Amino acid sequence: MEKHWKSVISRSVCDYFFDHQRKASSPEDIPPVIATPHHYLISVYRSSMFFVAVCTTEVAPLFVVEFLHRVVDTFEDYFSECTESIIKEHYVVVYELLDEMLDNGFPLATESNILKELIKPPNILRTIANTVTGKSNVSSTLPSGQLSNIPWRRTGVKYTNNEAYFDMIEEVDAIIDKSGSTVCAEIQGYIDCCIKLSGMPDLSLSFVNPRLFDDVSFHPCVRFKRWESERVLSFIPPDGNFRLMSYHIGSQSIVAIPVYVRHSLCLRESGSGGRLDITLGPKQTLGRTIENVVLEIPMPKSVLNCGLVTNQGKYTFDPVSKLLVWEVGRIDVTKLPNIRGTISLQSGSPPVEANPSINVKFTINQLAVSGLKVNRLDMYGEKYKPFKGVKYITKAGKFQVRM
Amino acid sequence: MLDSNKDNLKLEAMKRIIGMVAKGREASDLFPAVVKNVVSKNIEVKKLVYVYLVRYAEEQQDLALLSISTFQRALKDPNQLIRASALRVLSSIRVTMIVPIVMLAIKDAAADMSPYVRKTAAHAIPKLYSLDQDQKEELIQVLEKLLYDKTTLVVGSAVMAFEEVCPERIDLIHKNFRKLCSLLVDVDEWGQVVIINMLTRYARSQFTDPNLQDVDEDEESKRPFYEDENEVDEEQQEKRAPTLDPDHRLLLRSAKPLLQSRNAAVVLSVAQLYHHTAPRSEVHQVAKAMIRLLRSHREVQDIVLTSIAATATRRKVMFEPFLKSFFVRSSDATHIKLLKLEILTSLATESSVGIILRELQTYVAAHDPPFVAAAIQAIGRCASNIKEVTDTCLNGLVSLLSNKDQAVVAESVVVIKKLLQTQPSAHREIIIQMAKLVDSVTVPQARASILWLLGEYSERVPKIAPDVLRKMAKTFTSEEDIVKLQVMTLAVKLCLTNPKQTKLLCQYVLQLAKYDQNYDLRDRARFLRHIIFPADAESGGPTRLSKQAKKIFLAPKPAPVPESHFKDREQFQLGSLSHYINTKANGYQELPPFPLEAPDPKARDVETEPQVMEQAPLFTAKKVSSKKDSKFYSDTESPEDESEEDENSSDEDDDDDEEEEDSSSDKDEEEDDNEDEESSGLEEKLPKKVVKSNAKPKSDEEEEEDESDEDDSSSESVSDSDSEDESSEPSSVPKKQTRNAKPAKESTPVVKPKSNLDLLLDLDDGVFCQLISKVLSVIFCFQFLQHLLQS
């Protein structure tokens, strides 16, 4: 699929891109910027699709990358997921969207609130209604939000139930050494909101311990100055789902590691092959249970198969990608989950020097591992009492244990 | 189907056509049928036709002209959306014949009352420019007008157009510089990127280098600045204040909050602004935000890391505290791993090298061959950059020689070779060990390195070297070219130092090379033979050359200095496309070097101030004070906004009693002065004043920052704004009148107000707000009096 804004560029530019694609071992390895004799190809890789932008002149590459990501975000917002077949199916909407989002190579409207007013997202009900009434899902008036100084919110929002939900999601990124000591650990947190409030509410959210924040970034609706002076998030929210802020609690502060992995893996050429033995256990969880634990081990190429026994959960081994996945589930303190067994190796292959590292995934509900807490949420500017809710989740981000 | 008169059918047809266009299939033969539908009433059909037109108009110029009149009509449409989209399509149709029409349309649109249409006009300018370069002068005039625009919506696009059409006309910016700075926070993200990039260039050409005077304070930047950010900041700013142009300071200050943007492009552009224009001591502020971006998408990571890698070669201190963020995870993509390694090595210092080396050691065991190779090279770079660890590194590398992986061994051989070159002290054992490896190593690069080493230091291993040469001579024919070349070199060197044992061998090798398939080898052989065995060329006798042979071949060679290949990127603007690909991209504009002589800093002032004065002398004091609000949703038309505030304050004076229902003005109040305790602001007005006076020291504190950057005039204005509530009444009356006159021109309310509440937030209706709040206050006054009477 292609769309041109300035003069038309032949599709053959993409050949350069395909060349690179063929060379790269995995789709992740393709450089985001490719220089060809006359054009520059800037690409992003999302949900196993490439979105490629072709530029002819100097432009900040991040500008393009960020825009492409925003486009994909918008698609996901519109179609609830973004796959090849969905884009093919809704090509007209996609085209209309792209037309609204970019004008002559400069982004025009990227706020989903505005776009949704211009072009209504497709759903079955509306499709039927449109065929009956002959209406289209393209609005004929300019959304007023575009003109006001609060471009992210549409006007005239009405709900019968006024609700505001905040999800505080924290992801722990860590590298754990062979010996179990922490090499580095950081927390990356997000506050995602789902806000359904009528009118023009002006919210302010305060934290019990805002000193914890190391570095923050905000949705444009947050007033910077208020944050700098009082550490209070004061904002007029967009309608619907959005990410209010993301924060980073860096390696300077101490991060609690909620899980430990005891492991032994030896891959030897002789005899039956290698042996694997892994035990998981909780550590510093503040009394919460660890759920949805998944271990992923990318095995070396020479591994043929695994014959393992687990006392909890089940494991799969994909002989093509050599990925061993062990879905543990929740960790029970009384009976620690364990996996052990043998690994068969290709005979004659060169012995493996180093062991792979384990990627651990887990979630802990009702806990923000940094200790951050929302103090209160106040609303001004509207009369009604909204229903407020805050949810804390801790997840493993890029959590790696080296073996 | 297109000819049918049912919209449904038309729409269906258009959708199919667009499907063809999207797949890149040729659909131009349908042009006449499609163009007819440009008059369609159905907005969706219309839009799709527009899309089609833009794509094919260039190919079907004559037919495209048919549609022009429709656009001209649409340009006069009362609906601003239609006006804007008509202009958009009209300017996107790349037909030279319509240039005058587009020009006219742009001019009209630039004066349109809807900012949205003005924005579209700004977008249309570069389009027209690319179509017809001759229009430049005229376009610049329009552009100048648009740059004056105060709406955040327009400014970003105007600057974008400026960058594309006339980036050299920096004089157009002078008068707008301060406005751009103050609006910066409120412009949309994309506009911010463009504006900051433009302002970076502007700053480079207009302000002097802040780092010139304080070269001696270099060490200062090395001190730990993470104890307490704010404190240090304040201190430093005070120190810098006299040296830095106030406008320069204003620019840096207004860009700083944008580091907190969610948009990576904005963050990076602020980072490059600081990198290129800020005083050395302040650059570190951006590091934290850049580190945050590393958690973002892979593509963002890659680009940010490239920027960091380039910055880190020059400003180590900046990223040192974040060293651990650059540790590599096995799940990273290869090119990201390589970038991280690059950064790690350039960040290494005496204190941190230990941790880094330990990390590198783990990386060597990874499964990713290019990454492992890079890790070994990184060890080498660390070793040669930091003298203290050279020996440990060497030992580590030597132990890698016994690694089972061929590639690892080969890479370490190459690195060791480089390292030994830097310090040719006694490393006899290593050389001997390497010599033994010749038998096992198969990677040509490594073999060549070993041979070279042996040749270079043959006097240290007099016994082994000839032996190796003998072996190599045996296998000569089956070696790779690069190894063959090194065999020859070794042979020649040995022949010079130890002719007794090796002369024959050397001749043999040269003889072999003479008949090699590779002409390089043959050439080299001939060349070497004539230098060493000049007997062949009898005529010249034992020439001077052969006498000098020893000097030629055994000259001490300068050790290679492993350098970051990011060093040479300095010439490009950080974060630009050219910087990333390290070659000049089309249309890249070089950053001008800082002017050596201070360019007259008053030039801007002189040009700015009279202009402001002319417009409304009364505003000047007000304007500065309104900057205070600009960090919030600073209302774009500050005069109106200000007058609302006045209105409120005068209301308060009229009836400072409770007006619970007066939510309209209350709300306003909240919008504008957010420093007030909002919770208390809702109900009591009287106590509020007390609160306010209590809160004064606090608000002063907040404004301290403002004060320092807004020149001397600000101190007056701040006090002005503080006392505004009490004292502004008399002065605000005449102001109100002038202002009322001005907005009246601009605000032709397109969207009719539905309720008072909505109204307040809509800027165009500022005048309404005033009226209504006035009316309300009168009503409440009245009610209150009634109430009093009753009681």
Protein architecture, described:
Chain B: Keywords: Membrane, Protein transport, Transport. Chain B: Residues 1-535 form the Clathrin/coatomer adaptor adaptin-like N-terminal domain. Chain B: InterPro entries: AP3_beta, AP_beta, ARM-like, ARM-type_fold, Clathrin/coatomer_adapt-like_N. The complex is a heterodimer of chains A (403) and B (791). Chain A is an alpha+beta fold and 403 residues long. Chain A is built from eight helices and 21 strands. Chain A has helices at 14-23, 61-79, 84-89, 91-101, 112-118, 124-133, 144-147, 224-230; strands at residues 33-35, 40-46, 49-55, 102-103, 106-107, 163-176, 182-196, 202-207, 215-218, 232-235, 240-249, 259-266, 274-282, 291-298, 303-310, 314-318, 323-329, 338-345, 357-365, 374-380, 387-402. The longest helix of chain A is centred in the first third of the chain and has 19 residues, at 61-79. Chain A is globular. The relative contact order of chain A is 0.12. Chain B is elongated. Chain B contains 41 helices and no strands. Chain B is an all-alpha fold. The model of chain B is unreliable at 214-242 and 606-769 (pLDDT under 50).
Q: If strands are numbered along the chain, what order do they take across the biggest sheet of chain A?
A: 9-11-7-6-21-19-14-17-16
- Determine the oligomeric state from the structure: heterodimer
What's the N-to-C terminus distance of chain B?
77 Å
Low-confidence stretches of chain A: none
Pfam family, one (chain B): Adaptin_N
Biased composition (Basic and acidic residues) (chain B): 237-246
Family (chain B): Belongs to the adaptor complexes large subunit family.
Biased composition (Acidic residues) (chain B): 227-236, 637-681, 700-728
Helix-strand blueprint:
The complex is a heterodimer of chains A (403) and B (791).
Chain A: H1 14-23, E1 33-35, E2 40-46, E3 49-55, H2 61-79, H3 84-89, H4 91-101, E4 102-103, E5 106-107, H5 112-118, H6 124-133, H7 144-147, E6 163-176, E7 182-196, E8 202-207, E9 215-218, H8 224-230, E10 232-235, E11 240-249, E12 259-266, E13 274-282, E14 291-298, E15 303-310, E16 314-318, E17 323-329, E18 338-345, E19 357-365, E20 374-380, E21 387-402
Parallel strand pairs in A: 6-21
Antiparallel strand pairs in A: 1-2, 2-3, 4-5, 6-7, 7-11, 8-10, 8-20, 9-11, 12-13, 13-18, 14-17, 14-19, 15-18, 16-17, 19-21
Chain B: H1 7-22, H2 31-36, H3 43-56, H4 61-74, H5 80-92, H6 99-110, H7 115-131, H8 136-147, H9 152-165, H10 171-174, H11 177-183, H12 189-206, H13 210-213, H14 229-240, H15 246-255, H16 264-277, H17 285-293, H18 298-314, H19 316-319, H20 334-347, H21 353-364, H22 369-385, H23 390-400, H24 406-422, H25 428-437, H26 444-456, H27 464-475, H28 481-497, H29 499-514, H30 519-532, H31 544-553, H32 577-581, H33 602-615, H34 619-630, H35 638-654, H36 663-672, H37 678-681, H38 686-709, H39 713-746, H40 756-761, H41 766-790
Helix pairs in contact in B: 1-3, 4-5, 5-6, 5-7, 6-7, 6-8, 7-8, 7-9, 8-9, 9-12, 11-15, 12-16, 16-17, 18-20, 20-22, 21-22, 22-23, 22-24, 23-24, 24-26, 25-26, 26-28, 27-28, 27-29, 28-29, 28-30, 29-30, 34-39, 35-36, 35-39, 35-41, 38-39
